[in-house]
Amino acid sequence: MEIIISTNTNKPIYEQITSQIKEKVMRGELKHGDAIPSMRALAKSLHISVITVQRAYEDLQRDGFIETTVGRGSFISAGGSALIQEERQRQAEEHLQAAAEIGRTSNIPLPKLIELLTMFFEEDE
Fold first, then answer.
1. Is the pTM of this model over 0.85?
2. Positions of E strands within the chain
3. Closest Cα partner for 48 from 79, 88, 12, 102?
4. pLDDT band for position 125 (50/70/90)?
């Protein structure tokens, strides 16, 4: 599993790990039951602290993306599909919030924004 850490961002390393693993689950690259590297192995491969990876894994487990079993390791959770849908909706909400703000500050009427969203939504149907 490839994780790329950037030092040219304000995003903490543990959040970079968390978001990349979530993204891999959402794209279907990681599926239910797939093993992910141990905390030590990932820390060693990324040349970072085990504590940083532990924080990322704790967040992933809290959010339901992974399950960790002592002595066995960490695996992608079965509850991922509902979480994936929730995560995608959260991402859409962020983009819609930004679009609404641009619309408000640019005096674009709400019906026009709705028309644009409808057009993009139905584009490939």
1. no
2. 35-36, 66-69, 73-76
3. 12
4. low
